[in-house]
Each structure stands twice: as structure tokens, then as C-alpha cells.
Amino acid sequence: MTATLSIAGLSKTYPNGVRALDGVTLAIPPGMFGLLGPNGAGKSTLMRTLATLQDADAGRATLGELDVLRDKDGVRRILGYLPQDFGVYPKVSALEMLDHLARLKGLSDRGVRRDTVDALLQQVNLWDVRRKALGGYSGGMRQRFGIAQALLGDPRLVIVDEPTAGLDPEERVRFHNLLADIGESVIVILSTHIVSDVSDLCARMAIIHRGRVLIEGEPALFTRSIEGRVWQKAIARSDLEAARAAYPVISTRLLAGRTLVHVIGDEPPATGFVPVEATLEDVYFAAIAGRHPDLPALASPEREAA
Amino acid sequence: MRAFATIAAFEVRTRLKRLSTWVYFAIFFALAILWVAAAGGAIPGAIVSFGSGKVWINSPFAIAQTVAFLGMAALTVIGAIMGRGIQQDAEYRTESFFHTAPISKLAYLGGRFTGAAVVLLVILSSIALGGFAGLFIPGIDPDRVGPVRLLPYVIPYLTILLPNLVVLGGLFFCLGALTRKMLPVYVGSVVLLVGYLAANGLMRDMENKALAAVLDPFGSIAMSRLTEYWSIAERNEWLIPFEGLLAANRLVWLAIAATVVGIAFWRYRFAVPQQGGGRRASGSPTAADERATAVARLPVTAQVPVKPWRLLPRMTWMYFRETVKNVYFGVIALAGVLFFITASTTAGSVFGTTTWPVTWQMLELVSGSFGIFMVAIIAFYAGELAWRERDSRLDQIHDALPLPTWLPFAAKLAALMLVPVVLQAVLMLAAIGVQLGKGYTHLEPGLYVHALFGIDLVDYWLVCVLAFTVHSVVNQKYLGHFAMIVYFIAVAAMDLVGLQHILYKFGVTGGYVLSDMNGFGPYPPRFRSLEAYWGAAAALLAIAAYLAWVRGTTTDLRGRLSVACRRFTVPVRALTAVAAVAMATLGAWVYWNTNVLNPYVTTFELEQRQADYEKKYKATGDDPQPRITAVKLAVDLFPSEQRVRMRGSYGLENRSGRPVEVVQLGFLSGPLLNVRELAFAMPATLLVDDQAIGVRSYRLAEPLAPGAKTELRFDLELAQRGFRNSGAYTDVVENGSFVNGVTVLPIIGYQDRAELVSDHDRKKFGLAPKERMRARDDPVGRMQNEITTDADFITFEAVVGTEEGQLAIAPGYLERDWSDGGRHYFAYRMDAPILNFFAFQSARYAVKRDRWNDVAIEVWYQPGHAFNLDRMIAATKDGLDYFTAAFGPYQHRQFRIIEFPRYQAFAQAFPNTIPYSEGIGFIARVRDDDPDDIDYPYYVTAHELAHQWWAHQVVGANVQGGTMLVETLAQYSALMVMKRKVGEAGLQRFLRYELDRYLIGRSTEQKKELPLARVENQPYIHYRKGSLVMVALQDYLGEETLNRAIRAFRDEWAFKGPPYPTTLDFLAHVRAVTPPRFLGAVDDLFESITLYDNRATAASAKERPDGRFDVTVEVFAKKRKADELGREADAPLDDWIDVGVLDADGKALAIEKRRIVAERSTYGFVVDRRPARAGIDPFNKLIDRRPKDNTMPVTLGP
Questions:
Q1: What is the pLDDT of residues B347-403, one digit of tens each?
Q2: Does the interface ipTM go beyond 0.90?
Q3: What is the count of residue pairs from A and B with beta carbons less than 8 Å apart?
Q4: Residues of A in contact with B399 (CB under 8 A)
Q5: Is residue B781 packed enough to be buried (19+ CB in 10 Å), middle (13-18) or exposed (0-12)?
Q6: Are strands B894-900 and B913-917 parallel, antiparallel or unpaired?
Q7: Contact, B155 vs B48, CB < 8 A?
Q8: pTM (2 d.p.)
Q9: Which of B465, B689, B752, B1125 has minimal CB crowding within 10 Å?
Q10: How confident is the model over B589-600, as pLDDT tens digits?
Q11: Closest Cα of chain A to B167: distance in Å?
Q12: Which residues, other chains included, contact B574 with Cβ-Cβ below 8 Å and sequence gap of 6+?
């Protein structure tokens, strides 16, 4: 089945007044979908809502015939979920735990279950340590175990919440390979605040900030739309405030003690600015800063800066 | 130190901002108010008091009790706050912040500990504040409030609560810090609770009291022990000192805590524990990765929809296994077994002598003492299971699994319900082990299974459902635990404040008394009905728990409500409706039994009835009434129907000297009695028919002239109908009926003794205070005997019918027995006049027979209870020997002891017939080789035999002192027989218990203590003090001389009356044989409350050249006299008191009565053998609250 997950007008306000989702509308086709946004953007709320763990105040989400918000049992049957933060029973081995979860996911046939579990353990490269207690796993191994459990039972909707946070580069690569393996006919939603996760993996993406979807589409197209409009200059750190006031700055970072400022604009805003190749990171920062051309007009820079 | 203070202050500040802190505060505040208000009379139905209604509710004693008791209930709060002092950093993974900060271990640990202790003090200050606020609740009886003082509120905090915080808190703090988990903290609190219960169990044996006081980690036993002999006045006035056992207890526990804390401090490491220790998994990523990522597609995973019913047992088993398969559960089970074994060493102990470990007794230990422990375990495992995934942060993965919500929920509940199953099995094995260990081989595994798994387990399952529901609904682990504690306190407190109906105490099924004679008796219908009723309630709770169960991350109220609404689907609604209808139907059934078939009366309403009786009928109390002179009965017992019918007649005679116009009849069974016929032999009209109170009065058409006779004929029936709210009708039961005639038959005339007694109760109903008994010279009282007020000596005959296969007994001699229509009849006739005091028994008995001269001795017993028949028969023979020689002939040709079920635990002397409970004596395990065991079957038998003289020959008048002539003399007679058998030393062991029980008895006096000769039916005086006084008197006068006086008294009064004798008559005989120098002692013993504070102050000895020893002993003596509330004043000393020297075995080397007039005096002795101890009154013949300091070790000089 190659249905698209369509989300319309999803909103959620927490009892403490935080507006976590504010009319989120997305169409997520099969394949890898990146959900990019800063901490606290509402990514996890969206993920948990899709993973049946909490209810939205308003809005709809459907996957083909399936009403994702109402028919929780239906969703759970096709769901693979890796939460942002999860624990393990420290004294239980990966094999036992995975077998147990497989059973709970409905893999009741012993032979099939064992094949599945074995295959998954091999796929996530935990085969050699499958009999070791989970408590002894490193962060990366634990994360790989997490993806293994999420892939149990042939899920058609896989939700992976910030899976690479805290992983070393090597583990991250390994994890990316795993995700890339999952296949094109499955919807994989990957939430992250690390831009390269998305640029490396995802055919489609959305940037979400303060509960709203800022832009949605293909990463390459976004990059293309600011191609040739990103300018860079190295300035002294003390000049940063002045630069922010003077130019449409989208991001700053340090390089060898100097501050590199990226600005967006059709022309170099001042002397000393040199053009740089646009990256998805520039797209991201431009969007967050409200300066990406694909943004709806209502997001003005002043409001963002407030 | 800055860091220390900063850490402590931060801890205090953050905790004081938390809601839970103030919830705890509010609950303890409310409990304290409620407690004090109930004891102070502000709640009409409440029956709470601090031992005695005369103890002020704000007396130091009462405040200390309140603080100590509620402080114990705070155990979990202490655990939750102290345990989390350090453990919270592990749970929230904030350890590294502190471990890397430039602070010392001391500042970190000490600061957290101090902070937690301060917060706990704030919370627990609510007890004193609530206790104080309670004094101002409207409706508090001002008589119950003493002067307001500050110190009594402060001192218990210093001596009890603060040490508890440090000790218990320290242990919990360390457990939490070292293990970084809370489970060990809970296990620790359960173990401490077990320690307390075990210590409490030890108390049954007097010798263990000091040990128990030190063992109790809460210090409350030590405090009770310290104050147990305090009189009412002392409890009201004295501050509780920090000394003796209390100080010892606190110091021992502080030392234990200090050791643990020291070890913890040493062991605690400033390092975040590596996850999984050094066992970091080996499979480090290498080239294998590439292979792995290249693995082909997954096999097609045949995922099928989850089959919940197949998964349920699996998940249940998994949860259960994880619950029990760890060291903590092992610790709990082991603690349980240890507790059980400890408790079994003193189970059923009487006078420090144990019983055979019969199965009902083992079961009583398992379900009684152990019950609270089991419930605590259930409560905290409910929390563990409910929070299992969330505690390991697996909840998001778990909650997103394609499982119906009810499945993990049901599996957890089922796993929780398996926990008591395992523990019950463990306890059953422990119980059987104890039985075998004590050489008791009559094992009844079927009975164990029936009781433990068929009955008690249901109660525990109800608690499981409740606890799980609480945790589901509250959704905060520690608050959930606390809510359970509140529930337990509430259920216990409801009774005390007058909410006594079982229908509103969740999980209360009414219990049962298991008897070897009568099995579960009349109780199963009640507990089965209530189990079903609460089962339906539990189903509703489980539904509520399911609706409230948090799945996912929605925890706000609104969100949870909408989730609950969504879960409330049609099937759930249908289930709810079914459960609600079932609960309502079963509730109606219970109500029909408790309130329609049987009158539902609370304690308050019973008192109301007594007050109404007095208000309505007291006015006619002095009207002349006829007296019963003859009783003829046909008693039909229907054991399996629990029904008795008594037909027959009273012969009545007017002995009042005035014409009788109205006859008033009273019925103890009131509204339960079915009056089929009631008629006088002469015309009479029914004047009053007050069924609620149980009074009928008749106006005789013609007044009954003085000296004239008539007859009252009756046909009365009493039967168990359905089941009652509390108690049960256990007089007529399937096997082992024991019906006192007075429970069915009419009593003639107004009964003073049915009036309310305590001033407080009387005040509640607007009655003036009254004296408990008439004065010794009261002319009305002297014309009545103290056993029955409506008759003198009567003639008696009865035909008792019972079911075929049972034997039926009544006082008198069996004339014939016959069978008719499947029933067996026994005709008894008494050949001599007896008191109007008789009972009927019926059961399937075995009989052991013996003879003493021409007296037939019979013991009718339950087969299997043959342990002590020989002791009973020996006591009967020895008693008959002694009593006939010393006091006069035995009036009967027969003496029968007849066992009855343990619904009551006493033996009672009827003419030639002694009903004797299976709970005392029959199963006693007296080890003849153990000098500490007291042969109480022998003693009890001798006492009851003595009543054939003291009661059935000479009976006291119905005035003050009346029971002394019956009970004290019986007690004395039994002790003299005992003395012959076990010697002085054995007698002294017995008297130690008597002294203990007297001193405790007077401290819980409800009205006023009286001297022995004016005792007002106060058991602690006429039995306990009576023993001490009579033994002391026989020591002064000599046994022979005293017996001569007693004999003369009997000869003067036997079978006489009215008027009946009083203690004045008895003491006249005593004084007649008393040498003048001891006359003062007789007054002290009988006519005043005299206490001594005697002790040895120095004792030394020198060996003489001839091998003998010169002993010098300095003694201190003080005599004090107490008033009715125990306020004491020094009395002038001019007393003859023993001074003596003992050897190492406690035998006297020299003992002499010396006249002592000065507080301090010195005495010299020459003794033949090496002296060990010396002192004043070494055998504790006088009443002294510290008997042990009377002698001291003798130091042997050069």
C-alpha cells in the first residue's frame, strides 16, 4: 500500500498554556520524511500524537482509510515507534526483550518470530551481543536496539523521534544506513534537529517551529530556491550585534575564533560579503529566522525576533 | 559548611513547594483532630479513649500516644521523603551535577538528610497541631480536657518522633542512596513493621516485655511499657520521662542507625555508576557493520492481530515472575517466615505458657497478625507494577504496541493477585513446620487450604484491586501509597467513630472464628455474602481503574477525562451496569440480613437502649417483685438450625413483705426473642410490651399478697436469623452449643446492672453520674445475691433435647435419657437447692471419667483435645481434698467439666457443671520440665471447683465487695491447691503475672479504683489484687489460721440468705484470728489502696571463720496510699515486712518479718551458705511497682 499520511489542522495546547501544535498540516508520502525543527518546536508532540500516545485538541490525520487519531488500535498494528527517550530493563538481554516485544506485537508463531528477531538483530548489528544485558549497552547500541524493536512486525508507519541525538559520528552513519534500508514503500518519519540527518536521508521534509509548519517539500528544491542568495562574512565577535541590526542575518557560527555571518539577499548586503554555496542548513536557519522565500508571507522577521 | 546549608535549604524549599508535602500535612492534621475529637466525645458514636475515659485527651500520656501512633502511620511518608533524599538524583539522573560539584560528601549527604528531616518535622508537626486544634472542636466534653500545657506536646517529639526520624529516616536514606532504588526502602519499611509486630507478639509472655520494648524500632512499645503501671492521675499529670526502657530503646536504635549510616557514608561513592558496570558489551563495531547493513530484506513477518486472551497468561506470568524473582521479594518472604516463627513462640500464651499449635491458632497468626503485613506488601507491589514501564522509561514503546489497553492492565492486576497466593503458600508451609517442630502431628492441610486460599485470599484480592485502582487513579506513586495508608486508617477508624456498618467498609468481610469443635460455625454466610458484594464493588473499581489508566503521555485531568470517556464503550458500560446491579442486589441482601432479619445496632445505639431502659423503668425499680423459687424447663436445642426453645415455668413467691401489683420481666435478647407464650397462673394483663428494650410488665388482677405463691409459664424461642452486622449468634451452634438460661428466660424486676456505668456515657444521654454498686450496708443490696438478683436458692429440673448423636448437659443429675423422633432427650434434676444460675450444653463429646471418694468426675471434651484431661482431673481431686478438709463438705456427688467452642474464652462454674472453653486449658502445652510454664489448666479447674463453695454455697450480697467473696476466695482456694503442687516458687511465678495484671488493670480503670473489700465487680481487683492480698494475708496469719477463719465464715453463711454476707462479715472472721500487730496490715490489704516502694540499697557479706556468712542489708521502705484515680500520698510506716537473704537459686537462706517504721534501716543476718541476693520483701508479697529492685546482689567482702 502506498497511501500518504495526511495531517490537517492538527493543534494541541498543553494545560500549562504551551501551544505545542498550531494547525499543523502535512502530507507525508511513503519514503523517508524529515521533520526538522529546534528543540521545543513541537516535533515530539506531533510524533507522539501520531504514535497514539496522546490526543490532539483539533485536526485530523489519515493514512488511506485509517483515521490515525481515532483508530488507535489500527494505527498500532502498523506502527513502529522509537521514542526520543526510552529506557530498557537493564538485566534483560536484547534477544529476550525483542522476543517479548515481538510477541506483544502479534508475532505469535514461534518460528516466524525467531526468524524476524534474528534477522533484525543481525540487521542492526547486535547479533554478537544479543545475549548481553541491555544495561551494558552503549548509547549507540541502545539506539540500534530501539530501531530494531520499532521495525518488528513489518510496520508501514515508522516514527523515529530524534534518534541520532547523542550518537558519535560513526554510530550516526551506522544508524543512517539502517534507516535507509527500511524501504521506500513504508512511511518513515524522522524527527531531528540535526540538518544533515535530513539532507543525508530524506526525500521530503518539513521544518516546524513553534508548533507551525514553516515549509514543506523536497530538500533539494529548498536549497535551490536560495541558491546564489546566501552571503557570508567573517566579522569580529564584538561586531555581531551591529551586524544583526544591519543585515538580514540567518545564522552565525564561529570559525577559528572569528564569527561567520550568513545573510540572505539578492545582493551582497555590504562589502566583504562573499557568496557561498547554499546548504540545507541555510534553508533551515532562513526558515527559522523567517527569511526563506518559500515561507508564507505572514512570517515577518520582526515577529520572529521579538 | 556553606554547601551543607545550601543543599539542605534547597531541599527544604523545593519540597515545601510541593503539593504532596502539604497533602501529607493536611491528612495527619485531620487524623489528629479526628482522633482527639473522637476521644473527647465530640463524635456521638465514637468509642475511642486513651485506655480510660478518665484520662484527659490532652494529658501528656494521651498526647504521647497520639504522636507515637500517628507517627507510626507516617512510616511510608518517612520512607518516601528520606529514601528519595539521594535516590532522586539517580532517578532524575542529576547525580553528576552534584558529584562533580566542589562539595564534600558530608555536605551532600548530610545536607540532603537534614533537609528531608526538616521537611518531615514540618509535616509531622501537624500531629501535635491537630491534636491541639482538636481540643476546640465543638462538642468536646470539658471533663475530658485537662489544663493546657506546652511541654506535653514537645516532649514526645523529642523522645519519639525525632529519634524515629533519625533512625528510620537514616536507614531509609542510606538504603535509597546506596541502592539508588526505592524498592529496598519499601522492603526496609516492611521489615521494620515486621519487627514491630514481632515485638508486639513477644509481649504476651511477661518475661519478654523488656526485650520487646527494646526491639520495637518505633519506640512505642517502650513508651507503653514505661507508662503501663501509671495510674490515671499519673497519666494525666506526669510528663513522660526519657529513662529506662524508652531511653534504652532509643539509644540502641540510634546506635544501629549510626552504624548503618556510617557504613553507608563510607561506601557511598561520588561517581555516577556506569550503566551495567564494566561489562560494556564486547561487540564493538567493526567491519561487521557493513555486512550487517547489507543484510537482505527482512523475512515476511507474519504479523497477525494480537490474541489478547492468549497473551494474558503470558504477560501475567512475566509480571509475576519479575515481581517475585528478585532479592527483595525474597527478603520479604523471609521476614514473613521469621515473623511467623517468632510470633508462634508466644501464640495463645496464657501466664507465659503456650498452647499446642492447633491449626486454628496457626491460621489466626497467619491471617491476623500477618494480615497487616500482607496488605502492606500488596499495596507497595501495586505501585511497583503500575509504574513498571514508566519507571524504566519503556512506557512509550510499550504504550504504542498493538495491544488493547486492558491487556497489560489486567496482566498486572493478575500478577499482583498472585503475590498473596505465593506468600500464603509460604506461610502455610511455615505454619506446618512450626506444628511439626513442636511435635504436633495432627496436620490439617485441607483446612489450611480452605482458610488461606478459600477465604483469606479473597480479602487480599479485594485489597489488590483497591490498591491497583488507587495507583491507576492517583497516578503518582508516592501519593498512591499514602492514599492506601489513609484507606487502612479510615477503615479502622470508622468503627471508632460510630460508622460500624460493614456495607461501607470496603474489603471488610466480617471475619470468622475457627473452632476445632464447630469449624467455621455460623460465619460463612456472612463472609461469602460480603465477598460477593465487595467482589462486585471491586469489579466497579477495576473498571474505574481501567478508565483512569494512563496510556501514553496524557496526564492532565481534562485529557484523562476525555480518554476515560472514550474508553467507556458500550461493552464497558454494560459491564459497569452488571457490576453495579450485582453490587446493589448483594448489598440489599446483606442489608436484609443485618438490618431487617436482625436489628442493626451500633455501640451508640446499644448505649442509647441502656439509657432508655433506665429512663423508662428506673422509677418502678423499687416496686416489690416476687422471687423465683423453682425452675422447671423443657429445653429444645436445634444445633443445626441454631435455634433454642425453652418451655417451662418459674415458681414465684412474694418475699417482699408488700403486695405485688405489677411484675416486670426483662429479656436480654430483647427484639430477637420470639415469645410464644407467657402467662401467670393467675389472671394478669399485659401493661408494657417494650420489645426494643426487652421489657414486659404485667398487672396482676389480684395483687400477690406477701408470702403468696404463683407460677409464670413461658414458651420462648431464640434463633439465629440470617447474619448480623457484627458478632454472630454462637450460643446454639452445630456442634458445641452453650446457652446460659438467662439469655432466653425472663429476669424479674428492674436490673440496676443493666444501666450505663461510665460517667461519660451517662452524660451523653443526659443521665447523672451514678455509683457502680450499692454500699456495703445498703438494705436493698443485702437482700440480693450478686449472682442473680431475682432469686435466692431454687429447685431445678430440666429436660434437654438435642439432635441425635449429641450429648446434652444441664446442672443436676441425669435421671434418664431417651430418643424420640430423631432427637435425644436428657432429663436432669438437681437434688439440692442451687442459685438461679444454669446453662445448657450440647455437642458430640468424648467423656473421660474418674472418681474421688463418692464424687464422680467427668470431663466432656472434643475428641483430639485430650492433652490436659489428667491435669484437670488431678486438680479436681486435689481441690476436693483441700477444700473439703479446709472449708467444708462438697454439696454435690458429681463434678463435670464440659468443653465449649472458643467463641468465648473462659470457664464458668455452674452447680456441679463447669463449661470450659476450648480456647483456654484444653490445648495448653504445659511442659513439666520447664519451670517457667504455669499449669493453668490445673489452676483454672481448681478455681472453678472452688466456686462450688464460693458462689454456690456462700454467695456475697449485691453490694460493694460482693465479688470479692466469690472470686477472691475462689482465687485463694485455687492458689493454695497450686502451692501444694508447685511449691512456693511456682506460686511466686504465678503471682508475678497477677501483680502485672493488677497494675495494668488499675491504669485503665474507667471510673475509680476501690479497695479490695469494696470492689465493684472489677476483675483486676477481685482476681488479680485478690490473689496478692490473700497470699499476703495467709503469709501474715498462717495458712491454717486463715483457713479456720474462712471455714467459720462459710459455716455461718452457707446456703443462707437473704440477707447475704458482705466483706464486713468476712473480715470480722479474719480479724478475729489476726494478732493485733497485723490488724493494720489487714486494713491496708482490704480497706485501702496501698502501694509500697521498697528496695534494697546496699547488701554486703563477710565469710566467717566457721564457714558461715555475716550479711548486712540496707533497705529503703515507703508506703503510699492511692485515691480512686491513683493520686498517691505517703502513709506513715509501721509495717511488718519480710527482710531476707537469698541463695543463687532464689531460695531463702534467711527471711524474717521485721517491724519497719523508718524509711531507711539496716539488718544483719548470719546464713549457712553463700548469699547471692538480699533485700526487703524479696518474694514480692506486697504490691510494689518495681518488684525487681527489692533485692540486690550481695557483695562479698574480705
A1: 777 888 888 999 999 998 888 767 877 888 898 899 989 998 988 888 988 998 888
A2: no
A3: 167
A4: 52-53
A5: buried
A6: parallel
A7: no
A8: 0.84
A9: B689
A10: 999 999 999 888
A11: 32
A12: none
